[in-house]
Structures are given as C-alpha cells and as structure tokens.
Amino acid sequence: MRETHDPEVQPILTQIRAQIPELPSIALITGSGLAGLAENVTDAVTIPTSDLDGYPKSTVSGHPGRLIFGRIDDTPVMVVQGRVHYYEGYPMSQVVMPARVAAALGCKAMILTTASGGIGDHLQPGDLVRITDQINLMGTNPLIGQKWGFDQFPDMTQPFNTTLGALLHRVAGELGIELKEGVFGGLTGPSYETPAEIKYLKLIGVDSVSMSTVPETIAAARLKLPVLGITYISNFAAGKTGQPLTHEEVTEMGAQVGEKFSRLLQSLIPVIHHEFE
User: Fold this and answer.
1) Is 32 a catalytic residue?
2) Residue 197's domain spans which residues?
3) Which residue of 13, 33, 192, 198 could cross-link 251, Cys pair, CB 3.0 to 4.6 Å?
4) Rounded to whole angstroms, how far apart are CA atoms 22 and 24?
C-alpha cells in the first residue's frame, strides 16, 4: 500500500486487507452491463460493498456493488463490479471512492470502462472506443474541499495515459478487435440528454457521452494513478434515430459486447502489469 493522505479510506483498507491474500496491481471499474467482465478472475475473493463501512452502496441496475480481488492470468487485480454515480445522491468524494481505494492499495494503473451514447459520426452501437480526452460537464469537481492525494492542482493535459493507450491498441490489433477513438463527455444524469443537448455536445467536440468516468479520471490525476478509459457505444445519442432511450437498451448492448470486451481485457491486463512493474 502507499500513503495517499486519505484518512477516510483507511478503515476500508483495513477491512479489505483482512480478507485478501495479496494486494492488487491493476484496478478495473466496470460500467453498465459489464459486470460479467469479472468472470475472468480466478482465486476470487468477493466483498460486497454493503459490508464495507464507509464505502458507498450502488443503487442502479447493472451495478451489483461488489469488489472482487483475485487474478487475471498472472496479474493480481481489483475489479469494481458496479460503481456509484453522482445522480444517486452521493457527494463526488464518495463517487470516486474506487479510485481512492485503488490508489491506496498500491495499484499501478486503473482501467475505467463505461457505456456511452454515440455522438460522433464515426461511432456505431457496439463499437469499443479508447477515450482520448474528456470534457467535464457535471458542473462540479470531485477534488473540491478534498485534501487526499498528491497535488492540489493536478495537471489534466493527458488525463488518459498514452502508454496505456498504446498497449490497448497493440493488444486489440493482435486480437483482431476493431478499436475506435473519441473524446468523452460526462454529465450528471439521471435524465438522458435532449436532442438539442446532443447537438451542442457534438459542436464542442464530444464523441460519446455518459454519466460516469469523468470524476474518477480527475481523482486519479490527483492520486498519480495512470488511467486507461474504454467505452462501448450502447446506443445512438438522443435525436440521432428519433427513438426514445432506455437503460435496458444500455445493459442489453453490454451483454452483446461483453465477450469481445472480456477477451480484450483478459489479454491486456497482464501486458499492463508487466509494463508497469
């Protein structure tokens, strides 16, 4: 573990350390419909977040609320099977608790996955997209009033680690998995965007939009935790098809892309582990 000057996390770490045989090297946060990514973990120790005093509890379908510790291939991992969101009523400092715990446990890198609505003309439902940059449209910041971490004013020139991005492209190419790129926009939700809002987002350069990921990326920057962001396009954003949007549509697409996504991550995680040793 490393000291992140985060007293609020210490009781959570104590509870986790009492149940796991080794510390994780890579943290993976799963998005809507992607909880099945944790099925690749062997020697798994599953900790319901409801059992951890001080850890926020997920209230959203498709986010079971479990921390899974074990191995993917030879790599010790921490899989967050279901995140919490700002729209659930939690303060931002709690929304980013997975990043705070991952950093304090000594993880060398964090992979953020999420479902998002496709805005860019080059994106289709089912696409896997490496997030190259982000735009925070949540109207707040998870670092406000917080003292944990290493840098009060973290640099966000490269919020997503370029080395991790290059490894992702290499592994995807080796597996024959098509990978696209795009700028990610984060809004609070829980309502989906209007067609007019989608037109605005496209105008300012957003390629895909969701209600997560942005806060964790900002928190990771303060914690000096390298981040890789991967989103899958669950649906066309509002106004592109004339059809209403539903959460069921998001989780159904997650199930469809799950096998491809799992295969990619199972090959990628050991590569990241050895690169960042």
Assistant:
1) yes
2) 7-275
3) 33
4) 7
